[in-house]
Design brief:
Blueprint (H helix, E strand, L loop, with lengths): L2 H31 L18 H7 L5 H6 L2 E3 L6 E3 L3 H8 L3 H39 L1
Antiparallel strand pairs: 1-2
Helix pairs in contact: 1-5
Length: about 140
């Protein structure tokens, strides 16, 4: 593969991954907006139109995803420690809410995309450094 082809490939990967990360971020938000909340009393997407009493009734109801990602405190008062759910436990818990499960899957996909974006950035940096060395020589 020619150096020019490698450079174009790295730039294309970088641009594609940026678009993918933005898409996944929007997908996460949309999925969480559809979650009814753990007790079924979460703010609706059109919460700005709620009156004061309606907004107060919906305030504070967490999503299933927030509950799954929040560590539980175990131990006694002298040696408390945090325990997080495993990925299997998270998926099992989120099976009750397809919206939060979709958000969790989008989060995992975005994590992988961010890792790939880092690799694309490193490739672009290496190509740039190689080009700079060729100019100096």
């Amino acid at each position: 593969m020619s150096p020019e082809h490698k450079a174009l490939r790295a730039c294309a990967d970088y641009a594609r991954l940026h678009i993918e990360i933005k898409r996944l971020t929007l997908e996460m938000g949309e999925a969480l907006d559809r979650c009814p909340g753990v007790s079924g009393n979460r703010l609706p997407a059109d919460w700005l139109t709620c009156t004061g009493e309606e907004a107060a009734a919906h305030h504070g109801d967490a999503t299933h995803l927030k509950e799954a990602y929040t560590p539980k405190i175990e131990g006694d008062q002298y040696e408390p420690h945090q325990v997080w759910m495993s990925d299997f436990e998270i998926r099992e818990y989120l099976a009750a809410c397809p919206h939060c499960l979709a958000a969790h899957e989008a989060i995992q996909a975005r994590k992988a995309a961010r890792k790939s974006l880092g690799a694309a950035k490193r490739a672009i940096t290496m190509i740039g450094r190689a080009a700079a060395r060729m100019e100096i020589a």
